[in-house]
Design brief:
The structure is a single chain. By secondary structure, this protein is α+β, with helices and mostly antiparallel strands. It has a five-stranded mixed beta sheet with strand order 10-9-13-11-12, with helices on one face. It has a five-stranded mixed beta sheet with strand order 15-14-18-16-17, with no helix packed on it. Strands 22-21-25-23-24 form a five-stranded mixed beta sheet. Helix 9 (401-428) runs antiparallel to helix 10 (436-447). The longest helix has 28 residues, at 401-428. The protein is elongated and about 110 Å long.
Length: 593
């Protein structure tokens, strides 16, 4: 996995001279900044923290979620079971051996005499499959079940030693070789204690892959099927009866999961679940942990990539058995106040009577709240107990999922425009064309930009009861109240990007001086300020003539953009840089989310 960091461009994205020049044109000096801010002190202000955006590595193969079109934030139910590292997992060797345990080389037998003699012996079965019992002689135990060996030893002791009886138990057990095949992270042959179970072997093999089944794990012995393990029995009901003890040379086969269903919405445990034949509505609901309060089980939205009816409404109240395809999805809404049928189809427009919103930061009771439709930001603040004394209301960050999606979509559109422009320029042989590596760098940033979704709000005005600022909430909204900030951040075409302590007597020019001045690529006529609440202010007539207007306040960011004339061959260069800067500033603002 590689990273594009604010203030730091990783070596993997800037290996060539051209890429370094491109990064500089975006406002990043690689040689000066790639080491980070942590070892640089200005003596004046607190250094800017390093905020990191994680980008998907192109080498990563598409996993099951991507292949089936599932949401990226959902995980397969049960995958946490094998989340620990293989080296951290150890199998206990103190389990009680069952009566039908097969004895062999390496097993320890503990014999305790009582009666006329009182002595104890711990003897290991040798390569001949025997133990040499003092005063009794050799006894062959290889291949015997534990209860058979116990009876044999007691009979020999009773017949050869007058007045002596014996108890027989097993000590440390031998190690056995197990073959693990199929969809596990590390298939192969493993040596493990003889009392190990199927789940122990799966841990050693690193767990089950994205394609592997959790519900039909087969155990074969001598070519014959001797057991099947359904991990859902254990995960949901705590029933591990199918997790049988293994024997030497057993084969564990983890096949592919054949039917995966995405469950979202008003359930307690949303995720991706593997179905078996015969699963009814009640079973499916139990997989998802049950319904959330207020859930509507009579109008469940169904979507499919395979079915002839790709969209329809299901009724889970009758406990029916449904036929799902691999990759299908169902969504449980909260109970609706109104339904509208469109063209007599099976689509339902659901106006939910409850929405989920999240509030974090400097409030008395942060968390996720269930709100009524139509409630506003001030209602959410009241539900969270109001702001703390350390809160910075002017710096509140409000995000909305639909806005984020639009931002990401626009970035991908712009990536296509960049490609078309480059192709057009190459055909007309125009000058100042971008290098292929430059184009790849630009388009990768745009295509992997996931959006922020920030909506500019005036929280103090909203809390004052002004409806024009008191935004109506939507499902999935998030509000973050930061701690009061007494810094000013300088970002872009300056020689030293950082944050400095706010001084009410300082003007823009003073903070640029602290940042070691602007670079030769800076567009000094278009310097602008991103206010703490996300609004943008720009000095009129140039920053050097506008310092007295006191645009700056705590928590603001001064942006020094690059001069677009340096990239005249790319008409949308302004949009490209705008997206990068906006993403950088917004992520810095909501780093605490």
């Amino acid at each position: 996995m590689n990273f594009f960091s604010i203030g730091i461009v990783s070596d993997t994205l800037a290996q060539t001279r051209d890429q370094k020049e491109l990064a500089q044109s975006l406002g990043f000096d690689i040689d000066d900044l790639k080491g980070g801010f942590e070892d640089k002190e200005t003596g004046i202000g607190r250094e800017m923290e390093d905020f990191t955006i994680e980008l998907p590595d192109k080498k990563d193969k598409e996993d099951l979620r991507t292949y089936l079109g599932f949401r990226g934030d959902l995980s397969r139910f049960g995958e946490e079971l094998f989340s620990s590292e293989r080296g951290e997992f150890k199998i206990a060797d103190d389990a009680q051996a069952p009566d039908d345990y097969l004895l062999g080389l390496g097993d320890q037998i503990i014999i305790q005499y009582y009666g006329a003699e009182s002595v104890s012996y711990t003897i290991e079965i040798d390569r001949n499959g025997s133990i040499l019992l003092p005063k009794v002689g050799p006894i062959n135990l290889n291949g015997l079940k534990l209860y058979e060996a116990q009876e044999l030893i007691r009979n020999r002791v009773n017949s050869q030693l007058v007045g002596v009886n014996a108890t027989v138990t097993i000590g440390k057990t031998k190690f056995i070789n197990i073959f693990i095949a199929g969809n596990v992270e590390a298939p192969g042959v493993y040596s493990m204690p003889a009392l190990s179970r199927v789940t122990h072997a799966l841990y050693l093999a690193g767990g089950i892959t994205e394609l592997g089944t959790y519900r039909n794990i087969q155990v074969k012995r001598g070519g014959k099927l001797v057991g099947k393990v359904d991990l859902y029995d254990f995960l949901i009901n705590g029933d591990n009866s199918s997790d049988i003890n293994l024997r030497s040379n057993d084969v564990i086969l983890v096949g592919e999961s054949n039917k995966n269903l995405q469950i979202t919405g008003a359930v307690k445990r949303p995720g991706i679940f593997e179905l078996k034949g015969g699963d009814d509505a009640k079973a499916i609901i139990s997989y998802a942990g049950g319904m959330a309060p207020g859930a509507d089980i009579e109008a469940v939205i169904y979507s499919s990539l395979i079915s002839d009816s790709p969209n329809k409404i299901l009724n889970f109240s009758q406990n029916e058995k449904f036929s799902f395809f691999d990759g299908d999805a169902i969504h449980f809404n909260f109970k609706a106040t109104s339904y509208t049928k469109v063209n007599k189809s099976n689509y339902v427009m659901n106006k939910a009577s409850a929405i989920r919103v999240n509030i974090q930061g400097e409030v008395n009771y942060p968390g996720t709240y269930l709100m009524a439709a139509g409630e506003r930001i001030s209602d959410l603040m009241a539900r969270a107990g109001g702001p703390t004394e350390a809160s910075f209301l002017h710096g509140a960050v409000f995000t909305r999922e639909k806005v984020r999606q639009r931002e990401a979509f626009r970035a991908r559109e712009l990536a296509e425009e960049v490609r078309r422009q480059v192709v057009s320029s190459s055909q007309t042989q125009s000058t100042n064309q971008l290098d292929v590596e430059d184009v790849e760098f630009i388009t990768e940033q745009l295509e992997t930009y996931s959006g922020i979704g920030r909506v500019i709000i005036d929280l103090p005005r909203a809390l004052a009861g002004r409806n024009d600022a008191n935004l109506v909430l939507s499902d999935g909204d998030a509000l973050y109240i930061p701690e009061r900030s007494n810094t000013i951040t300088v970002f872009g075409e300056v020689r030293r990007q950082s944050s400095y302590v706010y001084n009410s007597q300082f003007e823009i020019e003073d903070y640029l001086t602290l940042a070691a001045g602007i670079t030769q690529l800076a567009d000094e006529d278009n310097i602008y300020i991103v206010k703490a609440n996300g609004n943008v202010a720009q000095p009129k007539g140039g920053w050097f003539r506008y310092g007295s207007d006191k645009l700056l306040s705590e928590g603001d960011t001064i942006i020094v953009p690059v001069d677009y004339d340096y990239r005249q061959s790319l008409p949308f260069w302004r949009d490209v840089i705008s997206i990068v800067y906006q993403g950088a500033v917004a992520i810095a603002a909501i780093s605490g989310l």
